[in-house]
């Protein structure tokens, strides 16, 4: 890519730019903030097209997606052929979902779970997300507190129904002890110690990986 690299960062479900606060990237950095779904059943690809409007079609760039943001990064990349994708704590195929996710996908049981309960269970969320210390835990609690239940319900349904985007060239970074997506580390080029929140706990190493990727192209 000629000129300084351009990064578009897409946070995970319910998260925002706070999860990227410890990254130190050399180049132009934009955070793609979540949009309000147009309806409870808005298709993911339609949503991704709206999100992609912030990415110029002729601009070489890096789409860096965390967790559910990685799914959106792949969908946006399908519309922006000059974009390159980096997944952090994310997945490429429904086959990578843990057994409970595959069960929910097959049965539709996720529709019966009240999304409002997640902010009420920060200790459970702490275990699943692998928040290791007080700072990570406080940030996780803030994110859970600020999560919109309607957006969460829409996003969970889209995530579990997503068929994948085979064929995209993708670089993957994953935690070796990710309890939400445990299969990801074996399928990633960069397996880092930590859980689902390595975007925070391993921000220094992830920054180095992203900067090296950007300068090598």
TrEMBL record:
<dbReference type="InterPro" id="IPR029058">
    <property type="entry name" value="AB_hydrolase_fold"/>
</dbReference>
<dbReference type="Pfam" id="PF12697">
    <property type="entry name" value="Abhydrolase_6"/>
</dbReference>
<dbReference type="GO" id="GO:0016787">
    <property type="term" value="F:hydrolase activity"/>
</dbReference>
<feature type="domain" description="AB hydrolase-1">
    <location>
        <begin position="9"/>
        <end position="202"/>
    </location>
</feature>
<dbReference type="InterPro" id="IPR000073">
    <property type="entry name" value="AB_hydrolase_1"/>
</dbReference>
<keyword id="KW-0378">Hydrolase</keyword>
<protein>
    <submittedName>
        <fullName>Alpha/beta hydrolase</fullName>
    </submittedName>
</protein>
């Amino acid at each position: 890519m000629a000129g300084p690299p351009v990064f578009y960062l897409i946070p995970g479900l319910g998260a925002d730019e706070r999860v990227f606060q410890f990254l130190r990237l050399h180049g132009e950095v934009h955070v793609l903030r979540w949009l309000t779904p147009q309806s409870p059943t808005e298709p993911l690809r339609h949503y991704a097209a709206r999100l992609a409007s912030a990415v110029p079609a002729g601009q070489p760039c890096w789409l860096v997606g965390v967790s559910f943001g990685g799914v959106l990064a792949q969908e946006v990349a399908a519309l922006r052929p000059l974009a390159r994708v980096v997944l952090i704590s994310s997945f490429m195929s429904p086959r990578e979902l843990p057994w409970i996710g595959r069960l929910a996908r097959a049965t539709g049981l996720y529709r019966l779970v009240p999304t409002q309960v997640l902010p009420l269970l920060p200790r459970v969320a702490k275990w699943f997300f692998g928040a290791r210390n007080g700072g990570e835990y406080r940030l996780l609690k803030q994110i859970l507190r600020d999560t919109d239940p309607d957006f969460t319900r829409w996003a969970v349904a889209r995530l579990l129904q997503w068929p994948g985007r085979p064929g995209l060239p993708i670089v993957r970074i994953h935690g070796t002890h990710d309890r939400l997506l445990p299969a990801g580390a074996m399928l990633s080029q960069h397996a880092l110690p930590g859980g689902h929140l390595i975007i925070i706990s391993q921000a220094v190493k992830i920054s180095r990986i992203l900067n090296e990727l950007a300068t090598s192209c």
